[in-house]
Design a protein that fits this description.
This protein is mainly alpha-helical and 70 residues long. The chain is built from four helices and no strands.
């Protein structure tokens, strides 16, 4: 759950760069599914705001696509 805390914190702070990407990769590597990660971001919407959540979903989509190519 360490990755969950890190991702939630980064999204909350609006830090949607390489740090978020690396922690999203980490979540995938320890067994989180894409659906679970999307659900976490959707849950955070009411706390971080809709625009920030949408931006986080875009970053997650980039990570998912990159992971699928491997």
């Amino acid at each position: 759950f360490k990755e969950l805390a890190a991702v939630s914190n980064l999204i909350g702070q609006g830090n949607l760069g390489s740090g978020l990407k690396s922690h999203l990769f980490g979540m995938l590597n320890v067994g989180w599914t894409e659906k679970e990660i999307v659900e976490v971001i959707l849950f955070l919407t009411c706390y971080v705001g809709f625009p920030r959540a949408i931006d986080a979903l875009r970053v997650a989509q980039e990570v998912f696509e990159s992971q699928r190519k491997k």
